[in-house]
Specification:
Blueprint (H helix, E strand, L loop, with lengths): L1 E6 L15 E2 L2 E2 H9 L5 E5 L13 E2 L7 H12 L4 E6 L7 H13 L4 E6 L2 E2 L3 E5 H13 L14 E4 L1 H4 L15 H15 L2 H5 L1
Parallel strand pairs: 1-4, 1-6, 4-5, 7-10
Antiparallel strand pairs: 2-3, 6-9, 7-8, 7-9
Helix pairs in contact: 2-4
Length: 207
């Protein structure tokens, strides 16, 4: 059983406006992410402020339980508010988030009896496309928050962590796009162009 928490509480300083509600090829970015993940989880909600632009009866929003603590506070809220033993945590600015990979991570969490299943990309661990065991991770995250820690992986030594290698991820991500996130208008434009190219028929792309 899987809950997915989409973290949307950032200040979006470099973007200049709330990244969750920016338009990505004509669709609100956070709605795109919710639609991609809708069928992989029994429960899905947003962690962040109640924003009228995306607030509606079909979207659950959970305000931060510990305000002003950044992604660590969002992670804590996601774990604390989840109804299921496995919790997938993703960021609201990742247009190529992958439901199949998250389902695979959930399966590994239970089959290998670990507490965290986190992918490794070329830039390091990706804690915002990870799956966490609520029972064991929640107290470790709360302790890290209470200690003022900000790095999302600072508490990993307290639990059993399974790292997915780049080779393990490749079947789910042949184009290397899953962990791409959007922080600026220029990055948004590039991501939209990538999406456009992916949607083109293969023969046209090769030309």
């Amino acid at each position: 059983m899987l809950t997915i928490a989409v973290l949307a509480g950032g200040k979006s300083v470099r973007m200049g406006k709330d990244k969750a509600v920016i338009s990505f090829r004509g669709e609100m970015l956070i709605r795109r992410i919710l639609e991609i993940l809708a069928n992989v989880a029994e429960e899905i909600f947003i962690v962040g402020p109640s924003n009228k632009k995306y607030h509606s009866n079909d979207i659950k929003i959970k305000p931060d339980l510990i305000p002003n603590r950044g992604p660590m506070g969002g992670l804590y809220t996601g774990l604390a508010e989840a109804s299921h033993p496995a919790v997938g945590v993703v960021a609201c600015d990742m247009p190529f988030v992958n439901a199949q990979l998250l389902a695979h991570q959930r399966d590994i969490l239970f089959s290998e009896n670990v507490d965290v299943v986190v992918p490794a990309s070329a830039r390091g661990l990706e804690p915002l496309h990870a799956v966490y065991r609520r029972e064991t991770c929640l107290p470790a995250v709360k302790e890290a928050v209470d200690q003022g820690k900000e790095r999302l992986i600072s508490w990993y030594p307290k639990v059993k962590v399974r790292v997915l290698t780049q080779d393990e991820i490749k079947p789910f991500d042949p184009d290397g796009l899953i962990f791409l996130n959007i922080n600026t208008p220029e990055e948004l434009s590039r991501a939209e162009n990538i999406e456009h190219d992916l949607l083109l028929p293969k023969t046209i792309r090769q030309d």
